[in-house]
Amino acid sequence: MKVAVIKEDAPGERRVALVPETVDRLTKAGLEVIVEQGAGDGAWFPDSAYSEAGASIAKTDDVYATADVILTVTRPSETQVTRLRTGQAVIGMLAPLVNPQLARQLAARNVTAISLDGMPRTLSRTQAMDALSSQANIAGYKAVLVAAAEYGRFFPMLITAAGTARPARLLVLGTGVAGLQAIGTARRLGAQVSGYDVRPASRGEVESLGATFIVLTAVDNGAGEGGYARELTADERQAQQAELTAHIVRHDVVITTAQVPGRRPPLLITEDAVKAMAAGSVIVDMGASALGGNVAGSAGGETVITENGVTIIGPENLPSTMATAASNAYSRNISALLLSIVSDGALAIDLSDEVQAGVVVTHDGQVVHPAVAKLLQPAAEVPVTRADGDADVDRPGH
Ligand code: NAD
């Protein structure tokens, strides 16, 4: 079976789905690896490194003409989709719940689509395949560096002949995978760190990293299904925002990561909270996107400085800014998934398997993933608008 690594063509995407180090794992399993010319350039893996590792380098047309399975990081572009042919499989973070039309297109082309962002994350056998976690981990680390670069003072306490600098007070809102890495990184830089999450279970994790956990009376228990948070009621949201504001204004740097499966990110930092923050404060909203974020006034890919001197950063694709580390981790995730599906040198699709049921989106010309198929039913194509005007959306991996 021929497995191909294509060159990502999304704007600003520097990651590559497979790194030279992992080629060996696939060839040892009897697979042939083909790499599109220049696929690893953005992550500093030259074609020569892939050749030395046992892969063959091919031109774009030859890659699509000969591959049985195509590995990607993000979903293929329109141009790439038109190159896929019947019987081929594509594996990547395809975000089918955000873009179900892609699934429809791939099913129509009889392409088997397998998406890592549908991976069930709590099974021990999926730990090595959990790309959402590996990439969130990198994003959490980089968010702290982005904040530190923007912040006009030190993170650690420094005692010098020119005076003493107090440590930065940093707050992390949402302490899942990204938030915990942000806490660890900020602590290593010497900041005084607090964390908050609606899931009471995260308290122990936050405290074990040496940070202070903030307990609010507004929300007793915000845990939902599958280890994720549930959406708060309107009353809870309002009470939470009001109570959080008192904590937010006492911090110099705030990093937000809060997400709820199937919903737009909750607003945690209101306009009033931003207005009450001191000049020079920095907020990094990791959830900022066209769908909104955790912070009033944040925008994906933009840095906004408010009238009262608060810098609000909406970083875009943080894992891509650490393309080598992100590709190394992703490569291990995608190869572990691929090898778990391969049997006797071919893909063995089995939807009765719990892992495959989560990740296989299209097969045999059909959209086989129930949640994606549901989104493609005519009534579900328009996002539901709640009474508060917020549109509900499904997010990648959820
Ligand atoms: P996520 O990206 O869905 O959300 C980030 C964090 O935001 C979560 O911790 C969530 O509780 C929090 N949040 C949501 N609404 C909030 C609100 N209104 N206020 C404050 N915080 C809010 O989460 P994730 O990082 O993907 O992880 C979700 C869970 O899955 C975590 O419990 C994580 O530990 C768990 N997980 C477990 C495994 C495993 O068992 N191996 C692997 C990966 C993740």
Explain what the structure shows.
With 398 residues, the protein is of the alpha/beta class. It is built from 14 helices and 19 strands. The strands form 4 sheets. Strands 3-2-1-4-5-6-18-19 form an 8-stranded mixed β-sheet, sandwiched between helices. The chain has a 7-stranded mixed β-sheet with strand order 11-10-9-12-13-15-14, with helices on one face. Mean pLDDT is 93; it is low at 381-398. Nicotinamide-adenine-dinucleotide (NAD) binds at residues 121-122, 127, 130, 132-133, 136, 173-179, 197-199, 202, 227-229, 232, 257-260, 266, 268.
State the main characteristics:
398 residues, alpha/beta, eight-stranded mixed β-sheet, 17% strand, binds nicotinamide-adenine-dinucleotide
Give the helix/strand layout.
Layout: E1 2-5, H1 20-28, E2 32-36, H2 47-52, E3 56-58, H3 60-66, E4 69-71, H4 78-83, E5 89-92, H5 100-108, E6 112-115, H6 131-150, E7 158-160, E8 163-165, E9 169-173, H7 177-188, E10 192-196, H8 202-208, E11 212-213, H9 234-248, E12 253-256, H10 271-276, E13 282-285, E14 302-305, E15 311-314, H11 318-321, H12 323-341, E16 342-343, E17 346-347, H13 354-359, E18 360-363, E19 366-367, H14 370-375
Parallel strand pairs: 1-2, 1-4, 2-3, 4-5, 5-6, 9-10, 9-12, 10-11, 12-13, 13-15
Antiparallel strand pairs: 6-18, 7-8, 14-15, 16-17, 18-19
Bound molecules: nicotinamide-adenine-dinucleotide.
